[in-house]
Design the sequence.
């Protein structure tokens, strides 16, 4: 890119910014629900200043050069934050594309450029802007992947929350169907937590388990046996009437396992196993 | 030959297994431990396996043997610190170590042994009372 | 199924077992197997290698890293030239033992792995092949 072009564009910074903002605001894809115009203005101003500075460097046409470092940093930040905020790829890329248009139009108004020079300069700017657009998309996708990864991690953690209800007592509310894969995850999470907290009692609450067949029962029995080998005792709670019926009809033997109808009665049992007494104290004024 | 050290702590014997056992080492341990119980008239045996990453059916049998033999000599056995992965594997293998007491760590294991001894004392007192 | 690596380890004495276990652990760790699955695999191997030493008078083991539809796994082969097993079906039953063990060796090992194959010919020897996949249940 010609040095004079860079200087010329730098001089027209104000006009470019105005038109660019105009374009962005007019565009139907503007997400004023996700970002205020004032915020956009500030972001665009910062970006444009960095871009015009980069145009003035000796290696203006190489977006990997040192002159573009600040600019790429800003751009990455913008794309990642847009990916997280839920902008679509098109909306994100429009940011660069709309500026490209404005820069082209501005150059056409430069009296110092004859047609052949003009087309060369516009081509050069197009190349730079396309390369920046590519970077935007790459970062945008990276940002989205991070979001997906975080969500899937959260989901697998959410599916097995091991709760410490008392010193030495853990509770594991199991929600949804228990298959072999899930049992393994649940079992490992519970046993790890038993070790980590030195808890002697674990309450497995199956109120949220829709059906208990012989396979699910077997999984539960295995979990209880493994915990016993480690020196902890399990209480299975949340056994509904229909589940008690199926268990007996299927001939599943749970006689060696402590079972309780509700989590509350399981907790009571855990207290008595640990010789903990909970008493109602004298009435206190708690302010309600 | 390699040996696993056995510590005497009051009325208890304490064994910490720090290496992965092969069969002969486990058999030697069983021998040494039972001889120690007999010699010291220990009331309890605590075996810490928190550093053991593999317990197969042979090793499981040795633990069961130690517990049964000690019991005949009036000593309780507690196995402490079994790793979750080891416990899951043993259950899958079909081994439940019935007859062996378990605890999460040495501290809880010691507590368990003390209550076992306490029960024994009161039982014996009760026995004498009924004699008188 | 693709074989990614293969090595041979003869088992003649009890001390060889420790090396054998460590080698399995290295391979399983390399393919990113979880600790629980590693423990199951090594425990199964420990049962089988004991059988080989006790009944087969030692033998040869092969340790392989295999891959099926891009899921890696560890395959172990235990081959001895001992007396063999007369009734394999009976030997696979829980609690059956000709020695003085608990009789959990073969059936227990089978429960701990994803694939289990046993071939035995009286007078010629026994070969057991097991596979545990990286994320197999």
Sequence:
């Amino acid at each position: 890119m010609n040095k004079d072009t860079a200087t010329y564009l730098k001089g027209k910074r104000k006009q470019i910014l105005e038109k660019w903002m105009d374009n962005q605001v007019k565009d139907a894809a503007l997400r004023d629900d996700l970002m205020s115009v004032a915020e956009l203005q500030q972001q665009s101003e910062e970006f444009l200043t960095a871009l015009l500075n980069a145009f003035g460097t000796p290696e203006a046409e190489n977006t990997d050069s040192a002159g573009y470092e600040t600019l790429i940093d800003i751009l990455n930040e913008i794309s990642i934050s847009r990916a997280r905020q839920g902008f679509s790829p098109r909306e994100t890329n429009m940011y660069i594309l709309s500026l490209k248009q404005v820069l082209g139009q501005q150059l056409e108004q430069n009296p110092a450029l004859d047609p052949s020079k003009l087309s060369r300069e516009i081509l050069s700017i197009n190349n730079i802007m396309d390369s920046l657009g590519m970077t935007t998309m790459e970062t945008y996708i990276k940002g989205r992947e991070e979001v997906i990864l975080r969500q899937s991690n959260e989901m697998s953690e959410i599916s097995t929350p091991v709760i410490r209800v008392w010193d030495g007592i853990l509770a594991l509310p199991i929600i949804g169907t228990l298959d072999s894969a899930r049992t393994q995850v649940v079992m490992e999470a519970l046993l790890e937590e038993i070790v980590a907290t030195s808890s002697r009692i674990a309450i497995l609450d199956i109120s949220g388990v829709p059906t208990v067949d012989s396979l699910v029962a077997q999984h539960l029995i295995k979990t209880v046996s493994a915990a016993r080998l480690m020196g902890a005792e399990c209480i299975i709670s949340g056994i509904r009437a229909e589940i008690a019926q199926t268990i007996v009809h299927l001939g599943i033997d749970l006689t060696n396992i402590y079972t309780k109808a509700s989590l509350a009665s399981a907790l009571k049992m855990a207290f008595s196993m640990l010789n903990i007494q909970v008493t109602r104290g004298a009435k206190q004024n708690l302010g309600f | 030959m390699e040996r696993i050290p056995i510590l005497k702590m009051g009325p208890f014997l304490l064994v910490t297994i720090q290496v992965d056992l092969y069969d002969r080492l486990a058999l030697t341990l069983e021998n040494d431990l039972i001889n120690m119980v007999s010699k010291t008239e220990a009331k309890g045996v605590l075996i810490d396996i928190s550093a053991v990453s593999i317990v197969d059916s042979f090793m499981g049998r040795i633990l069961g043997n130690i517990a049964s033999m000690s019991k005949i000599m009036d000593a309780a056995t507690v196995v402490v610190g079994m790793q979750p992965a080891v416990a899951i594997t043993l259950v899958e293998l079909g081994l439940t170590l019935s007859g062996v007491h378990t605890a999460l760590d040495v501290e809880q294991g010691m507590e368990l042994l003390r209550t076992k001894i306490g029960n024994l004392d009161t039982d014996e007192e009760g026995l004498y009372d009924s004699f008188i | 199924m693709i074989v990614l690596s293969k090595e041979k380890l003869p088992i003649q004495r009890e001390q060889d077992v420790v090396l054998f276990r460590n080698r399995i652990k290295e391979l399983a760790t390399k393919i990113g197997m979880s600790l629980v699955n590693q423990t199951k695999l090594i425990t199964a191997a420990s049962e089988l290698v004991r059988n080989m030493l006790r009944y087969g008078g030692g033998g040869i083991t092969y340790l392989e890293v295999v891959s099926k539809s891009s899921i890696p796994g560890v395959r172990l082969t235990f081959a001895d030239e001992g007396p063999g097993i007369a009734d394999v079906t009976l030997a696979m039953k829980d609690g059956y033992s000709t020695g003085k063990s608990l009789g959990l060796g073969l059936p227990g090992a089978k429960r701990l792995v994803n694939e289990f194959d046993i071939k035995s010919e009286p007078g010629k020897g026994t070969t057991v092949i097991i596979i545990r996949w990286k994320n197999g249940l």
